[in-house]
Amino acid sequence: MVKLAIDTMGGDYAPQEIVKGVNIALEKHPDLEVVLYGDEEKIRQYLKESDRAKIVHAPNVMSMGEKDPIGEIRRNRDTSLVMAFQAVHDKEVDGAVTAGPTQGTIAAAHLIVRRIKGMKRVALCTTLPKLGGKNRLLLDCGANVDLRSEHLVQFAQYATIYLQETANISNPLVGLVNIGSEPGKGRELDKETFNLLKEDPNINFFGNVEPKELFTSDCDILVTDGFTGNMVMKSFEGMAKTIGAFLKDEIKKSTKAKFGYLFNKNVFDKFKKTMNPDEVGGANLFGVDGVIVKAHGASNDYAFSQAIDCAYRSVLGGVINKMKNLIGENDNNE
Length: 334
Fold this sequence. Notes:
Mean pLDDT: 88
Oligomer: single chain
Number of strands: 11
């Protein structure tokens, strides 16, 4: 059985959409157990009866706009987010899923769950929309602003193991996001990372990948620092919304355009579905000693069930233990 802690109070539409997402996941995975942390009375309004779901009353919530998440975690150990993460630390569950505030999630992971021994940083890893025939992982997407080359190498190693064990990709191809495709491009960080990735026997390194090639590259994994990754992620999210709004406005302007839309409705619907963040569900937090998935703050029931799927696959794949083994091997070789 896979056992996950669920922060039911985090997110813009909690607990209703969160609990409904749990219902979907329980129906989909007969070997899934959940412990729901939140306001018990509110949870019971939406939770379908199941002997694989347990409720722990935790009505206090970390605000989505919390400006001091570290202080909030230290002052209030009874919020639903903190209690769910404490269960991961205490090995009562295999992992946790939350739609709560991103910085609160990262801070709680650091302070409560804690990093894997030997893991120098953690990374927020998202899955890009499935364009060009494949999904691609992008990391780091905002857990760290400043990183060193050895940190990025560890992220690439972790992401490689993740895809091997959760997506059945035997030898994932890793690219380094950079301003040019040629070797020697970029900052000193990029040049050093390029050389380390090229030399690492655990990584199938492609080389540099320019941002304009993110969705056409053969790479399965794209690594960069958290500042760059967050900018890249938000740029394509904004572009997708802009394109959608532009098409909607143009279609309304003429009868000819409206007929064109009707003839191509399937194409537009497919584009909308592909770019919809609900299909991804959330981002994995790589590097802590327990599976942590950060769902979108605006998650609906389907999106949150997809986030639970991410955590479920990580647990089944034994991703964390395999990364621990790799770190141990590298330490022994030094």
